[in-house]
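Encode chain A's predicted structure.
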Amino acid sequence: MKFSTSTKVIWGVPLLLVIAGVSFFWIDYKTSFFSQQGNYVLESDSSHHVEREIVLPVFLHGMVINNLHVVEDEVKRNQRFTDLLSGYTVPPTIMQQLNLLPRSIYDFRKIAAHKKYTLLVEPDSLKTVRAIVYEPNAVDYVVFHLKDSLLVETCQRRVDTLERQISGRIESTLSHTIEALNISTDLTNKFVDIFAWQVDFQRLQKGDQFKLIYEENLVDEVSIGIGRILGVYFEHSGNGYYAFPFDQGDGEDYFDENGNSLRKALLKYPIEFTRISSRYSKNRFHPVVKVFRPHLGTDFAAPTGTPIRSVGDGIIEEAQYKTNNGNYVKVRHNGTYTTGYLHMSKIASGITAGTRVRQGQTIGYVGSTGLATGPHLCYRFWKNGVQVDALQVELPPSMPVKTEVFPDFENVRNAIIKRLQLIPFPSSYSEIDVAGL
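Encoded structure for chain A:
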């Protein structure tokens, strides 16, 4: 029988399909079709099977500290830098480099008590120190790498600034109000310094109230202090007071709504805001000698060790101990004004006769030396050589806003007033709050 060409082609197609199907099942015998679930690796490849535990690096001060022993502590009183390494091992060559380190790279005299330091130590029997980190404050830190050769790094943490607003009403005293608000004394002191010459904060009245917009600085979400105060409204005895920061070319200062400077040549308070325990008097009963006699100063009650600041730029005239005054410092600010600070527990380092000091610089610390019954600062004020009441003296204000920049000041003033008006006053302590903007 003969078949036509077309007939051969038709029969050939089924044959090819059969061959392909048999080939598929044969090839896939030990794989997808007949294989057991999950048995995807050939027995001959089992030697390549590897399991490993991934350990993520742990960082501290920019260094990997996995497998290191971390020792955190504070510098003790009278400790030197090398004392911090006592009980640990530092290679002799590294120790020699530390001893010869120039002050231009790091001055070890800056090491101060109560400051934090961290040792990174090898887990060996010698307790070999790989690095030591010293933190003079919440932002700065210095890393001394001690592994192969000495390397000193000066570093800074990132500081985040958060803008906040707050309002409060005086129920008894400013101190009690601040405590109820649960805000830092740093903000209180900045607030008081702005209005110190306009408002007597020792004689606030119930119902006085305030609003503030300010900046708070944070490191790792932890507050490290108050930054700039961006605007203030304060009501005292029925009168309203504004404060606006403005820089007219010689640094930022605070001005009222008319552009008058709120700053005077001298600060009103020589220590951070605190209680006045005794005012200037021509006839006061002295608690030690038990007689009535003039008290030509103002006493500020404060804990021993509270920093005392110079109220203005000037030259130190005296810095010594006298029987009645105890440790005291006298500062001549200009040809008109001189101030004195008595009964210090100690005079600050570097404060000697002839030294120039800046406004706000620490010149000593509160104590009870000399003729004193307890820790306080006796603050004295001379005008043209005559002792006067420091809290009542009239000082000339600083320069007002200049005419040529007054339009710029008005723009700043108006914007801040609008923002302050949006902050509600609290009706009670339960409603007092500090809010982030």
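The chain has a mean pLDDT of 82.
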